[in-house]
Amino acid sequence: MRLGTDGNMSKKNKRDRGRRVDIDHLQIARRELGKRNAKLALKHARLQHQQTPNGDSRDVLERGLLARAEQLHEHGNHDAAKGLIDELSELGITVAEVSTSLDRLRVLMGMPAAQGGTSVGSPAEPPEELVALLADRAVLYPQKRSPAYAELNAQADIVRAALCDVERGEETAAVDRLAGIPRKSLFAEWRLFVRGLVAHYADDAQRVDANWSRLDPQRAAYRIANQLQVFSGRRKAAECPGDMATGQRRLQYAVSDSPLVERLERIRDCFQSGRIHQACRELGTLRQRFGQSRKRMLERLSDLMWKRLVAQGDERGLRQLTGAVPGPPLDPHWHRARALLWYQTESTDLNQIEDLWTAYVRDLQQCETLSADERKIAVSLVLARLAELFAETASDEASREEPDFVVWDDDDEYEGTQEERVEVLRKQAEKHLRSALREYPQLLNAHRDLVNLYQDDDQPEKAVEAARRLLEHFPDHFDTLLWLANYFIEADQPADAEPYANRASGLRPRDPAVQTLLWHQRMGMLRQLTRKRKFDLAQTQLEEVFAAPPASVNPYTKDLLRATIQYKAKNNEAAETHLQAALGQVREPTAIWLMMHAYADRFGLPREVKNDFRDRFKAAIEKRFDSQTAGHIAGFLRDFLVRRVKYTGLATHQRLYVDRLQRTRKVDWQLQDLRDVCEFLQSHDSYHTQGLRLRLLSDGLRRFPSDPLFPYLYALNRMHAGPYRTDYGDVVENLERALELNKTAKLRLSDAALEDAKQSLAAAQMARDMFSSMMEHLSELMGSGFDMDDDDDDWDDEDEDWDDDDDEEDYEDDDDPSYGRFGSPQGKQADASRRQRFFPFF
Fold first, then answer.
1. Has residue 62 got a pLDDT over 50?
2. What percent of the chain has pLDDT over 90?
C-alpha cells in the first residue's frame, strides 16, 4: 500500500509527523559491545556522543573505537584499524583500561607510540610478555603480521616451511631446516615442536615425550601438541586445556595434501560400495608400505572398518576383514568382534555367544598391552555383560506364555519345562556374575545386577546378602541403603532397618524419600515397643518420630498415637484426653475413627476398643464429608496401598470410602485434598472406580488448571480405556499440558511420575500417528463414505438417526463436573462407542 493513499494511513502520518522518537543510543552501544558487535556499537556510540556529549558517552565511544580497531586487526584490515587508532588518540583517552589495551594493540600492529594525536616515528620495542605472542602469531596467522617486525616474520617463514616439509613426509629436511635456530630464540619452541611432530608420525612415543614435554605451557606450540596427543590417544582431553575441535579441524586441513589420502579414498570408496574384499586388499597394501610410519593410523582404520561391519551385521564382510589383517592388540583373534556381531544377527544360540566371550576372556588374561589391574577390570566387564545377556533371556522366557525361544543349539537341545529353562538361564547368569566379582570386586554394576537377579528369582535372602556385599565395597551407595531399609521395614523388622535408614539420612537428609523412610522405620519401632508393653520407651520413640515428620503427616496424628499407647496401657482416661485433643483439630471425626480403628489392629489394642472405633467409623462414613476429611482418609489409606502393608479392616475401609465418594457430588475441594483423593484412586486402580476417577480428575482440571497432576492422571486413565476407545489426540494434549505446567508448578510431579509422563507421551504420540494413518487408509479404501471428522452426514443409515444436539442432551449434565471444556469423558465415550459401532473390527 502506498503511503497517503488510504485515509487512515494519511491521518496517522499527519498525526505522527511532528513526533520525535527517542532512541537510547548509549544503551544500545553498551549492549552491542557485550555481544562483541563492535561495528554497530561504534555507530550508536558516535550518535550518542554527537547528541549529548558527556562522560558516559565518551567512555562508550572510547571502548567502541578500541573494540572495532581490534576487530579489524584480527581480520587483517590494518589500514582501517590504524585510522580508528589515530581517531581514538585524537579524541583523548580517559579510561585506563582502554589506554592499556590500546598500547598492547599498537605493539601487535607494529605502530609507534602516539605523539600529538598521531602515530609517528618507528615502533617501540615490544614488552617481554608480548614478544612470544608476536612470534606465535607470525607462525600461525601470516595475515596478522606487521611489516615492522621483519626479522620475526623471516624466522616464522622458516618454521612454516619446515611444517610444510613434515606434511609432505620430508621429515629429515624439516629437521635440518630448523637446525640453525639457537636455543634462546623465540622460535626454539617451534623447533622442539617440529621434532616431536616427526616422532609423532613415526609413532615413537619416547621421542615425542622427549621433545614435547619441554614445551612452554604458555605457547601455542604446547597447545597444538596437546591436541595431537589427545587425537592420537596418548592423552585424555580432560588433561589438556584448549579447544580440541579447533585442533581437529586444523589437522584435517593438514592431511588433505598427504600422499596417503589417495589410497585412503580408494579404501573408502570400496568400503562404501560394498566391495569389502577389494577394500581389505587395499588396506593390506597400505599396511605393507606404511606399516611402521603410520602404524597407529592403520590400526585406527581397521578399527573403524570392523565396527562398521558389526553395526551393519555383515558377517561375510567381517570374515573377509579378519582374514586379511591381524586383530587389534586387545582382540588379537577377533573374538570380541564376532561376539558383538552375534547381537546384530538373528541367532539365538547362547552356547555360541558364551563360547566367544569366554575365548575373549582368555585373550584378555594374556594381553600384555594392559596392566594386571586393567586385565582384571576388562575380564570382569566382559563376564558381567555375558551375565546380563543370560538374565535378560531368562526374564523374556519367564514372561512368554508360549515359549518358543531356542537358547540351545540343535546338538545340545535342552528338554524341560519353562520354569526349568528359566532356572538354568538364571544359574548361568549368577555363575558369570560371581566370576566377575571374583576378578574385580569393585565392579558396581555386577553387584547391582546380582541383587536384581535374586529379586527376579524370588530369593530375597540372597538379594539381601548380595546388597550387603555391595555396601562392603561401596558403603555410601544410596539406592542400596534405601532398598535394604525398605526391605526390612516391609518385613516388619524396623530394628534391622534402622542402621541403613540412618546412613541414607546422613547422605541425603533433605530427600523426601529419606524422610518418609525414617518415618516408617520409627513408626515400626514405636508399634513394636507398644505391642511389647514397653510404654516408656514407646513415649521416647514417639518424640523421635515427630522430631522431623514428613509434610504429609497430619498434626493430630501425634495425639492419636499418644491415645493408642494409653489404650494399650489400659489408661482409658488419658487416652480419651488425647483423643479429644485430636478431635479438636478437625471439623468432623470420620478420618480419626478410621485411623484409630487401623491403629487398634496394628498396635494390638483390646478387642472392645477396636470394635468401638469400627462402629464409630461405619456410622460416620454414612454421612456427607467435606474436602478435608476426604483428603485425610485418602492420604492415610494410600500409604498402606503403596507400601503393600495390610491390617484387618483395610479392605472394608477402602470399600466404604470409595462408596462414599461415589455418592458424594458437590464438594468444595481444596487442592491438596483433591490431589490426595485422585492419587489414592489411581493407586486403588479398580475397574469399578474408573468413572469416579475421571469425574474427579475432570473436576480438578476445571478447578485447578495450573496443577500438573490432574492432566497427567487424566491422560493415563484415558489411555487405560483401551486402544480402540481412546482419543490419543486428547491424551497427547493433556500430557503435554502436564509437562509444561510442571516446569513452574509449586507442587510438581515426582521424578517417577515425570519420567512416566514422558514415556506415556511418546507412546501416545506413536499410537495417535498410527491410528491417524490407519483411518486415512480406510478413508481411501471406502472412498467418500468415510470422513476423518466423524461427521454423521457422511453416513446414510436408515435404521439409525444420529443428531449431535440429541447427543449433547443425552450426555450433558449440569450437576456433573466432569462435563466441560476439559474433556467430557461421557461425550468421548459416546464418540468411541459410535466409532466402534460402525467399525466393530477395530
1. yes
2. 33
